[in-house]
Amino acid sequence: MTSIYPSHLVREVLWQGERLLVRPVRKDDTDGYIAAAKLCTIEDIRRRLMTGIMQVSQALIAKFTEVDYDRTMAFVAEGVKGDLMAITRLVHDSCRKSAEFAIIVRSDLQRKGLGMLMQKMLLDYAHDVGLHEVWGMVDCENRKILSLVEKLGFTRRLEFGNPFARVVKVLG
């Protein structure tokens, strides 16, 4: 695991009149993840993790906060009070030409442009590190994320009989 924190990726942004710190995830974000998960509906968590879990475990949060920055990048949007508001993640494939994304915005903050802001920053990062494409698996009933990725130019590929769609954005 890479121990050098990529501090050059920390950004201060303005969202809804509030200053947010968008930065790579840190190992000490565990408590922030737990607090943010409590502000997400079970449905939002299920759609993000694509599983029927009833609560987010400590082990799962450790998996999300202890990242190898050479292979995985996760950004958090942190409010002025230090609360985590959104998380977006990118995991490189083995040949480092494409990567899978995931995103979750706290349920109480959805439909306000935060997901768009976070996903654009993630796509900029993917472009900057030379990725050819970014893709994700999305529940076909998750209209919020499908609308978001459509606005960002992702194409949607359905597989017959599969409740998930593969969305892909080729980077220029």
Automatic annotation (TrEMBL):
Coiled coil segments of this chain: none
A Pfam family per the record: Acetyltransf_3
Residues covered by the N-acetyltransferase domain: 20-172
Name of protein: N-acetyltransferase domain-containing protein
